[in-house]
Design brief:
The complex is a heterodimer of chains A (215) and B (103). Chain A contains three helices and two strands; from the N terminus they run H-H-E-E-H. Chain A has 215 residues and is mostly helical. The longest helix of chain A is centred in the last third of the chain and has 86 residues. Chain B has a four-stranded parallel sheet. Chain B is α/β, with parallel strands linked by helices. Chain B has a single domain, classed as 3-Layer(aba) Sandwich (Rossmann fold). Chain B is globular. Helices cover 46% and strands 22% of the residues of chain B. Classes of the chains: A mainly alpha (215), B alpha/beta (103). At the A-B interface, helix 1, strand 1, strand 2 and helix 3 of A face strand 1, helix 2, strand 3, strand 4 and helix 6 of B.
Chain lengths: 215, 103
């Protein structure tokens, strides 16, 4: 497993042992992070799906109303009616940190204090279908903004989960086994050196004794 | 202070103007790409709603922004009906995170 050449010294051994301890700790932490992110992500993804279905259906219904409205009015009157909107929507974006992912939190502000101030045309020349259509669209807006928030969070979290999962796998399957193998190699090499010294000393002792006493 | 933009063909989105969102009409994909680029470069919009029909021609550009905190690019169905592209995007992000679509 050990692909890189390492010096079998005690210094290297203690360095590798420290590295292994750090890697194991990091692996545990990242695994916890992944699990928690996954839990929160799944909740959010479920919510995302529900909201999306709801918003899509509502927009489709609103679109139908707009088609009806445009059928009852001339295109010119219709575009004139939509020419000067009274209302304006502003967003304040704050960020919430969820397991190191910054997810956006929108707070909505409107230009006029009354949120229902959406009818920006004179009622004399427009059909009542247009009023229905605009008000059905206005009902969707809060859900649409919430959908944007949730969907963006889901995208950001899924990217972070993927990154974390790769890190966990790299530590678990590459870094930690490799370091362990290197540690074993060094230990074996050091033990072997130890035994070599031992036998050499015994041999020298024998030679010395033979020379001194003739054993 | 950010604003909200809506991008798509005229019939699908003119209603959003009344609500106070900024609407940008793009009837074909080259015009759409041009406006999309301008909207994202201005950094004035934190949410860009885009119709599914138009988004299907701009997937590459939209992908680039899916991992940045702003802007959020959200697909909405147009007047011609729901293509299912929006829900597919949700499934895709689940697949990316979990490995398979479990929701």
């Amino acid at each position: 497993m050990a692909t890189t050449q390492i010096n079998p010294t005690r210094m290297e051994l203690s360095r590798l042992k420290k590295k292994l301890a750090t890697a194991t700790r990091g692996h545990k932490l990242l695994k916890d992070k992944r699990d928690e992110l996954m839990r929160q992500f799944l909740d959010m993804a479920r919510l995302n799906r529900e909201l999306r279905v709801k918003v899509e259906n509502a927009i489709m219904a609103a679109n139908k109303n707009f088609v009806l409205a445009s059928a009852a009015m001339s295109p010119q009157t219709l575009s004139a009616a939509m020419l000067a909107p009274k209302q304006e929507v502003y967003l304040d974006v704050a960020y919430k940190n969820v397991m190191s992912v910054d997810i956006p939190v929108y707070s909505v502000k409107t230009r006029t204090p009354d949120e229902n101030d959406i009818f920006c045309y004179g009622l004399a020349f427009t059909s009542s279908e247009l009023d229905d259509a605009v008000s059905s669209m206005a009902d969707v807006l809060p859900d649409m903004l919430r959908l944007a928030e949730i969907e963006k969070s889901c995208q950001l979290m899924s990217a972070e989960i993927e990154k974390t999962r790769r890190r966990v796998n790299a530590l678990e399957h590459v870094m930690i086994p490799e370091t362990k193998a290197q540690i074993r190699n060094i230990t074996m090499k050091l033990d072997e050196n130890e035994r070599a010294t031992q036998t050499r000393l015994m041999k020298v002792k024998d030679m010395v004794l033979k020379k001194a006493h003739g054993y | 202070m950010y604003k909200v933009a809506v991008l798509g063909d005229r019939d699908s989105i003119y209603g959003f103007a009344a609500l106070g969102l900024d609407v940008f009409y793009a009837d074909d994909s080259s015009k759409g790409a041009e406006i999309f680029k301008e909207l994202t470069s201005r950094e004035q919009y934190s949410i860009i709603y885009i119709t599914e029909q138009l988004a299907s021609d701009l997937t590459h550009e939209i992908e680039k922004y899916s991992y940045k905190p702003t802007p959020a690019i959200i697909l909405i169905p147009g007047v011609k009906g729901n293509t299912g592209e929006g829900i597919r995007a949700v499934k895709k992000s689940v697949e990316k995170a979990v490995g398979s679509d479990i929701i």
